[in-house]
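May I ask for a sample protein chain and its fold as tokens?
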Amino acid sequence: MADTHARILGSEQSSGAAQRGDAPVAATDASDATTDAQHPHIRSFSGRRGHFTSGQRSAYERLLQVYGIDYRNERLDPVACFGRHAPLVLEIGFGMGETTASIAAARPDTDFLGVEVYPAGVGSLLLRIETQRLGNLRIVQHDAVEVVRDMLAPDSVAGIHVFFPDPWPKARHHKRRLIRPAFVSLLASRLKPGGYLHCATDWEHYAVQMLSVLSGEPLLANTAGPVRLADTAAQCAGFAPRPEYRPQTKFERRGLRLGHQVWDVVFVRRPS
């Protein structure tokens, strides 16, 4: 696949199904900055989730060379990749691809780059791309931190979606959470002025952390108004209503019927 995709690279170039109700803790983790400095890149994913269905495996083997892009330490050329000039939205950790495919189908004038590490999820989204004939969607199967850092140019992305990332609920694993100050700073630098960063979670502690981390990034402004941080999500201010472009998954709908909650955090890149 490396030879196949060399031409599209320019020379510069857990999901939570329902809220588990973890115990409230302080809104701001004072160790965040220290931990980020000590561990500049701790992987936020584990080695599990290896099961393929036959359909996913078939799609993976047939279609990855068509819709996949190899990770390289070079800037991606979106025009060469998609064959047109269009806004680019990054989808980080798309799981089985249900939401990503739905959003891409509803926004044909926007191009989407999905990043996922698990082969089953990649195969599932590839199958949806084929079935729904989604020409505006490409996939990189690699660590999202390295993709953002190495492949995306500063001020180049119209939007970034991080929906239901692994909450790593145990306190000793919080350093593995994706939404931390260093990574949010990197994401913000890749957004165009006016571009948006949208995170969603069904884990209350992580929701408060997301609100805290994004509100602490100088390049970003909250679309939901002034932020008030507290120990619990109910005491906080600054969560956004779910935008219409983010569809509810079947797991989310089931969780809501059971009385669980989902929190959206939507910030935009400030003007330069």
The domain at 2-10+26-37+50-269 is CATH 3.40.50.150 (Rossmann fold).
